[in-house]
Automatic annotation (TrEMBL):
This is HAD family hydrolase. It comes from Streptomyces parvulus. Keywords: Hydrolase. One of its GO terms (molecular function) is hydrolase activity. Pfam families: Hydrolase.
Length: 231
């Protein structure tokens, strides 16, 4: 199969199609304070490093790793989602330049686009609402919509494949994101095209190590790639 055979495109949100200007770290600070982890301490620095390294992973999974027991993890996740939602409501997010146009081009080319996230549904909906994207694509998915595991598991990609019916073969699926976790989820799902973008958390070496076949400057270059114009 070639790039032109792609029928379903699964795109990450924050860092890939959505520019959030480091809001994940700001929301983490708010959540960490709630659990007694103060900025400037070694504990905070260690936990923040882990948050940065695991960008793209389901946030509740990150907090389970950081805070151990389920009650503390759930509390941290609730505080994180609340803080992130408030930042979104404050107008601190925007589309990655060319992202909406890329989605519209992909759709015009006859491809189905699904937006996915590691955030909870309430936060995903807040982002979609803030950007005016509620009707941009036919399906959006968060970890809870696909069994709860999130990335780097392939579940959201496979859920998109099953729910849309847009492709006959997983090799007709493209997965694109700004983290190694996005890439790994696409590889594990058997997607025919898996690409990293340089507009977010991770860089080329992490993408290649996770199995990306392509690295793009941004999602704006995806329609041309899938038309076989560039790559």
């Amino acid at each position: 199969m070639t790039t032109t055979d792609i029928r379903l495109v699964v795109l990450d949100m924050a860092g890939t199609t959505v520019a959030d200007g480091g809001l994940v770290e700001r929301a983490f600070d708010a959540a960490a304070r709630e659990l007694g982890v103060e900025p400037g301490t070694p504990d905070h620095a260690e936990k923040l490093d882990y948050v940065r390294a695991t960008m793209g992973e389901s946030k509740i999974s990150v907090f389970r790793h950081l805070f151990g027991d389920e009650d503390r993890a759930q509390h941290a996740n609730t505080m994180f989602e609340k803080a992130y939602g408030e930042l979104v409501d404050g107008g601190l997010i925007a589309p990655v330049p060319g992202a909406r146009e890329a989605v519209e081009e992909l759709t015009a080319d006859g491809r189905t686009v699904v937006l996915t996230t590691g955030f909870a549904r309430v936060t995903q909906d807040a982002i979609l609402g803030a950007l005016g994207w509620r009707d941009l694509v036919p399906l959006t998915l968060c970890p809870a919509d696909a069994g709860g595991r999130g990335r780097p598991y392939p579940d959201m990609v496979l859920a998109a494949f099953l729910r849309t019916g847009a492709a006959d073969d997983v090799r007709q699926v493209a997965v694109v994101g700004d983290t190694a976790y996005d890439v790994l989820s696409g590889v594990r799902a058997g997607a025919g095209l898996v690409a990293g973008v340089r507009t977010g958390a991770h860089r080329d070496d992490a993408f290649r190590e996770a199995g990306a076949g392509h690295v793009l400057d941004s999602v704006a270059g995806l329609p041309a790639l899938l038309r076989g114009v560039d790559g």
